[in-house]
Write a sequence for this structure.
């Protein structure tokens, strides 16, 4: 009988349970994805170019696990708020506390396990998609990869089972120990709102001071290093709490005193609701703001590393393709690249000297990278004249980097075309190519690089060289792509959980708000004004942590100047993606809340 009543209660709140269930599914799916990638040993051993990304995905799993734990606490609180009145009614009808505890335990654990199993299946599909994206981004062929990982699946199920087991035990004990009247009248219990004026003013000052100190530390991280990270972490967390507990309430009190604003439509009611909510939701809003900063920061930095691949590659190499003994290469393959620069330098060599033609360097100057102390400035190509190349050793060393290993120890001499023709030595060619779009032509360039190694056996013994741009690109692509995918999916997971936590917190207080909106309806307030008030109220609760989180990110990106040339490059892309998803959660929350607090007029 109890189970039938329980199922009826769940069915009546199916919409709320689906919101809870979807959040848990997404959390377990992304957790599985990270674990399956990091624990696939056969895949990692057979693909050494991306084996280094394992630490990235392990880090993502740890961070995701910590946030998931906090998320489940709030989701669990929402679940209990929805059901505690039902449990109290069962007790009043004669149900024993042991049976109620058993039912609560089973409900919580079964919902959690089902969400984990569904999430793991979704995670397998998500891992398969990420696998294809990873291959496309890294431009490598990988083997022994399977979206299904028994190790990752077991870790995911074990981790979430432990979390839901603990949550089920806490739920069962917390409900059974409370008196029946306390459970029934929980939403009618008044909240104490007293606050000392001096302490209120002190919180305002401390909130602004803490954030200023934290932002200063992040902006000068090179100077303060680890101390700066520690101080920034503490002061920003404290500052975020004080901002929500004092500064926002102070701003709302000023708006309430402005009659031209407060007395317009339902603004005074909305401001009063917000003042009450923000005091009650201080911890929640602070956590959401920090998670918002982590999520948006992860997404921004992840996509930022994508932009770094080309920048770092270009800073190392001038030419997109180097061909030694180019006379053996089919030049039609080079023509397919549509080169914007195709420099060919004739060579002759004896035991001590490499000879080049001066006129060829006068016609097509040799290029080097012009170094800059400012990392934000992309290095430019600098032309070296034949005279400079003939007389300055540093420029000859740059040319020597493109020669074969056995040629590099030899002296370089530039002579006239006539003198070069008189040398009775074998003639070879060094061809240096630049293309218009390197990434578009990468596959064709890699084929020519492989041909170059085949034509020059000495290069086959060299595992890696900074002279071939394709090698440099693939190396940095393998490292940075891991950060990109971790940032994208970790940001998605954080966003799902922070928005769900805020949604659950707002919806859990909807029953107590229902009385207030009923009163406004009875005195003749139009339905349109009530809906407008709801949109504004929930909009502020979503917007306030969002704005503070954005400010955290804008200052926090300063820390990544040590790793990235310009962490603010193309900032609008991650911000747009994030705010679209965040806005969808706002719309869903507003729709659910409106359906609860406003009765349909007949």
């Amino acid at each position: 009988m109890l189970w039938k009543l329980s199922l009826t209660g769940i069915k009546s709140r199916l919409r709320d349970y689906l919101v809870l269930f979807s959040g848990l599914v997404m959390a377990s799916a992304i957790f599985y994805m990270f674990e399956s990638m990091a624990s696939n040993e056969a895949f990692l051993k057979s693909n050494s170019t991306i084996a280094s990304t394992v630490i990235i995905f392990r880090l993502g799993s740890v961070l995701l696990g910590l946030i998931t734990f906090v998320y489940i606490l709030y989701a669990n609180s929402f679940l209990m708020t929805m059901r505690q009145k039902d449990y109290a009614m069962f007790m009043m009808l004669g149900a024993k506390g042991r049976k109620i505890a058993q039912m609560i335990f089973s409900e919580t654990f079964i919902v959690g396990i089902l969400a984990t199993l569904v999430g793991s299946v979704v995670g397998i599909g998500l891992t398969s998609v990420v696998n294809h994206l990873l291959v496309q981004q890294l431009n490598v062929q990988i083997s022994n990869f399977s979206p299904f990982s028994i190790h990752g699946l077991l870790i995911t199920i074990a981790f979430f089972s432990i979390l839901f087991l603990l949550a089920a035990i806490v739920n069962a004990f917390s409900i059974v120990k409370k008196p029946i009247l306390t459970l029934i009248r929980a939403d009618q219990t008044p909240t104490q709102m007293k606050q000392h004026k001096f302490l209120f003013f002190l919180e305002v000052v401390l909130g602004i001071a803490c954030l200023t100190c934290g932002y200063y530390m992040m902006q000068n991280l090179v100077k303060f290093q680890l101390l700066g990270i520690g101080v920034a972490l503490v002061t920003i967390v404290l500052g975020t709490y004080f901002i929500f507990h004092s500064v926002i309430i102070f701003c709302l009190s000023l708006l309430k005193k402005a009659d031209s604003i407060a007395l317009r439509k339902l603004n005074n009611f909305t401001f009063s609701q917000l003042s009450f909510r923000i005091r009650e939701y201080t911890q929640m809003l602070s956590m959401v703001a920090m998670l918002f900063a982590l999520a948006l920061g992860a997404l921004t930095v992840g996509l930022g590393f994508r932009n770094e691949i080309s920048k770092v590659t270009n800073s190392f190499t001038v030419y997109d393709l180097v061909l030694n003994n180019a006379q053996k290469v089919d030049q039609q393959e080079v023509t397919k690249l549509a080169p914007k620069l195709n420099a060919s330098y004739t060579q002759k060599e004896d035991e001590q000297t490499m000879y080049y033609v001066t006129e060829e360097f006068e016609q097509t100057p040799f290029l080097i990278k012009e170094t800059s102390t400012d990392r934000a400035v992309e290095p430019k190509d600098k032309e070296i004249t034949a005279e400079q190349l003939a007389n300055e050793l540093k420029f000859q060393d740059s040319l020597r980097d493109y020669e074969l290993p056995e040629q590099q120890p030899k002296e370089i001499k530039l002579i006239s075309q006539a003198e070069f023709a008189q040398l009775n030595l074998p003639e070879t060619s060094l061809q240096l190519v630049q293309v218009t779009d390197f990434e578009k032509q990468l596959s064709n360039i890699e084929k020519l690089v492989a041909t170059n190694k085949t034509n020059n056996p000495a290069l086959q013994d060299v595992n890696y060289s900074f002279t071939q741009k394709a090698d440099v690109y693939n190396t940095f692509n393998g490292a940075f792509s891991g950060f990109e995918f971790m940032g994208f999916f970790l940001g998605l997971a954080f966003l799902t959980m922070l928005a769900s936590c805020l949604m659950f917190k707002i919806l859990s207080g909807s029953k107590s708000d229902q009385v207030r909106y009923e009163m406004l309806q009875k005195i003749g307030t139009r339905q349109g004004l009530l809906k407008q008030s709801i949109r504004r109220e929930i909009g502020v609760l979503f917007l306030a942590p969002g704005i503070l989180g954005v400010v955290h990110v804008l200052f926090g990106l300063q820390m990544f100047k040590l790793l990235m040339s310009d962490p603010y490059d193309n900032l609008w892309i991650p911000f747009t993606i994030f705010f679209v998803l965040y806005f969808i959660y706002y719309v869903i929350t507003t729709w659910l809340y409106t359906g609860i607090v406003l009765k349909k007029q007949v």
Remarks:
- Residues 1-189 form one domain.
- The beta strands are 321-324, 339-349, 353-357, 366-370, 380-384, 411-415, 427-435.
